[in-house]
Write a structure and sequence with these properties.
This protein is an all-alpha fold. 40% of the residues lie in helices and 0% in strands. It has a domain at 17-57. The model has no long low-confidence stretch (mean pLDDT 86).
């Protein structure tokens, strides 16, 4: 399944990203977001791979208050 839109107000972190593991096209959806600054787009494209990789290898307790 491909991501079509990516809201400017989205927060990424351990409580949300595991649900996104099998989605594709994040970078393109982020680039299409007119409501996001260039800095926010760059940040999300840099950090989203970290959280997706983290989700694949997580073990134990998670602090769900972590959000970016």
């Amino acid at each position: 399944m491909r991501v079509q839109t990516f809201p400017a107000t989205v927060q990424i972190g351990p409580n949300i990203v595991p649900e996104w593991l099998y989605l594709m096209g994040f970078d393109e959806a982020i680039d299409r977001s007119a409501a996001m600054t260039t800095e926010r787009k760059s940040f999300l494209k840099r950090r989203l791979p970290y959280w997706l990789d983290w989700s694949k290898h997580r073990e134990g307790l998670t602090w769900t208050g972590d959000q970016e």
